[in-house]
Amino acid sequence: MFSGFLRIAPSCDVCELDYGFADAGDGPAVFVMFIAGFAVVIPALLVEVAFSPPVWLHLLIWLPLTVAVCVALLRPFKGVLFALQYRHKAEEGRPDGQDE
Prior knowledge:
Elements: H1 27-51, H2 55-87
Helix pairs in contact: 1-2
């Protein structure tokens, strides 16, 4: 499905399905930001309340963790949204009367 880390291939290597119909846009990034935000901010707040570490230590711990969570989740979420577009036959919206 992917030809790069986040680049969708033009077609399937096995069944030659044309992937030109699908465009996940910014959808995966939005979901990943919400999940990463909750997954990182809540523990960061708990650590702040329990231990009160200095700001540099927060940055040292939570910034790399945020980046790792986002990078780990972005590709699977893009794949899921791509598959949902295929499953539900989602296409680009067109004004009424302008069907192909």
